[in-house]
Inverse folding.
C-alpha cells in the first residue's frame, strides 16, 4: 500500500504569473486564494489547489523531463464546449483543434490546451461519445508542438 494519500497541491513554474493567473481565474473560473504580484499565486477549483510560481525562464515543453500535462476533470461536454469557446475568444492555444474523443484512452471526451507558459492542460470528462458525432483526436501521450 502506498505511503501517500493523494495530491495535496500542484505547483507550476510559470513564465508570466499575471497571464497564468488570468488563465486559471478568468478562463477556468478558479478561485484566487492568494496573489503576490511578480512572485506567486494560489488558485483552486474547490477540489485541487494549484500554486503558480514566477520562476520559469522559458516556456514549458513536454519534450523535457518534468510535467507532461495536467489533467483536470470537468462536469460535462457542455462545460467543455463553453471552455473551448472561451479559449478561442481569448487566443488560448488548443491542441487537436479542440474537443474530441481521446482515441488511445478509451473514448472519453476531452479538450487539450496550453496555458500561457506552454504547460499542456487536459480538461477531461467521464462522458463518452455515444452518437459518433465527436471527432477522434490524439490523447494524453500524443505530442504536438
Amino acid at each position: 500500500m502506498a505511503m501517500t494519500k493523494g495530491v495535496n497541491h500542484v505547483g507550476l513554474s510559470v513564465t508570466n504569473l499575471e497571464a497564468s493567473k488570468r488563465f486559471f481565474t478568468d478562463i477556468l473560473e478558479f478561485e484566487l486564494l492568494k496573489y503576490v504580484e511578480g512572485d506567486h499565486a494560489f488558485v483552486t477549483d474547490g477540489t485541487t489547489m494549484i500554486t503558480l510560481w514566477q520562476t520559469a525562464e522559458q516556456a514549458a515543453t513536454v519534450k523535457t523531463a518534468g510535467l507532461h500535462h495536467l489533467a483536470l476533470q470537468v462536469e460535462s461536454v457542455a462545460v467543455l464546449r463553453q471552455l473551448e469557446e472561451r479559449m478561442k475568444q481569448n487566443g488560448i492555444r488548443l491542441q487537436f483543434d479542440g474537443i474530441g474523443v481521446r482515441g488511445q484512452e478509451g473514448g472519453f471526451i476531452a479538450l487539450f490546451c496550453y496555458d500561457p507558459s506552454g504547460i499542456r492542460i487536459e480538461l477531461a470528462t467521464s462522458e463518452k461519445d455515444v452518437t459518433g458525432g465527436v471527432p477522434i483526436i490524439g490523447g494524453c501521450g500524443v505530442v504536438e508542438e
Remarks:
- The first strand starts at residue 10 and ends at 14.
- The helical segments are 17-27, 77-89.
- DSSP finds two helices and nine strands in the chain.
